[in-house]
């Protein structure tokens, strides 16, 4: 006879949880819509046209990290101006252009690697994130290293974490670039699975064009993943990844 009340209680708890999730989703939607509106006004006030700011991820989730698109013909000064206008909107965090540009190296901004980058580099001095041959699938043996990398990055959440894939120069370069991008994407997804927020991650593949200093481009040691943990100075309370020169 006690089963029925227990079921009722369980169903009630499930309903409350569902309503909470719906409410949270609705609040997120309102936040994204409000930031869309304010950013559009800030862009208009900046005098720069043809640029839009999107406050939703590719999966449709609301985010405080807008993606700027359009304005392909703008010079770097105009790009910096419109990015700063969007960043000045209350509630906006890091800003990124759709072409992948992350940080401004102009206007006297000083790029400073955070301590987490050094921690990760120390982990990778003796070990390497390895992939199955000719593939972007991470080898099982590298999972423990990825656990340690994620733990080292966690204290610097809120900054921008760039994940860069490299290859050696063997094989055609278009294939090298594609493979290095796929591997960077795989590491990015592995970090997300370990609790690193996707908003702060930037994955890119550069193929073989940036070999390790002192190594021949064909050296297999050029096949690697590098991490850059970056903040800009001077900073407002929230780190900003202001777009700049491409």
Structure characteristics:
246 residues; alpha/beta; 60s Ribosomal Protein L30, Chain: A; four-stranded mixed sheet; three-stranded mixed sheet; 5 helices; globular; disordered N terminus; disordered C terminus
Provide structural commentary.
This protein has a 4-stranded mixed beta sheet with strand order 4-7-5-6. Strands 1-2-3 form a 3-stranded mixed beta sheet. The radius of gyration is 21 Å and the shape is globular. It has 5 helices and 7 strands. It has helices at residues 3-46, 76-87, 115-126, 143-153, 173-193; strands at 51-56, 62-70, 96-97, 110-113, 160-166, 201-205, 224-233. The protein has 246 residues and is of the alpha/beta class. Helix 1 (3-46) packs across helix 2 (76-87) and helix 3 (115-126) packs antiparallel against helix 4. The chain has 2 domains: 3-97, no CATH class; 110-233, 60s Ribosomal Protein L30, Chain: A, CATH 3.30.1330.
Q: Say which CATH homologous superfamily of the largest domain is assigned.
A: OmpA-like domain
Low-pLDDT stretches are 1-24, 102-113, 232-246
- Rough shape? globular
CATH architecture of the largest domain: 2-Layer Sandwich
Topology as a string of helices (H) and strands (E)? HEEHEEHHEHEE
Structural class: alpha/beta
């Amino acid at each position: 006879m006690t089963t029925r009340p227990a079921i009722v209680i369980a169903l009630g708890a499930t309903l409350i949880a569902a309503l909470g999730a719906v409410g949270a989703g609705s609040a997120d939607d309102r936040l994204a819509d409000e930031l869309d509106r304010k950013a559009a006004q800030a862009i208009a006030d900046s005098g720069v046209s043809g640029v839009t700011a999107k406050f939703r991820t590719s999966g449709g989730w609301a985010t405080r990290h807008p993606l700027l698109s359009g304005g392909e013909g703008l010079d770097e000064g105009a790009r910096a101006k419109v990015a700063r206008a969007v960043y000045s909107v209350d509630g906006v965090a890091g800003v990124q252009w759709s072409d992948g540009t992350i940080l401004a190296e102009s206007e006297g901004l000083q790029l400073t690697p955070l301590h987490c980058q050094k921690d990760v580099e120390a982990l990778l001095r003796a070990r390497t994130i390895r992939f199955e041959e000719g593939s972007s699938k991470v080898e099982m043996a590298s999972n423990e290293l990825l656990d340690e990398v994620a733990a080292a990055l966690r204290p610097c959440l809120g900054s921008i974490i760039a994940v860069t894939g490299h290859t050696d120069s063997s094989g055609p370069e278009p294939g090298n670039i594609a493979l290095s991008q796929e591997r960077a994407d795989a590491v990015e997804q592995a970090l997300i699975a370990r609790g690193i927020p996707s908003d702060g991650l930037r994955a890119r593949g550069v193929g073989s064009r940036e070999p390790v200093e002192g190594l021949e481009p064909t050296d297999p040691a050029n096949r690697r993943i590098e991490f850059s943990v970056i903040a800009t100075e001077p900073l407002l309370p929230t780190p900003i990844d202001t777009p700049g020169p491409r």
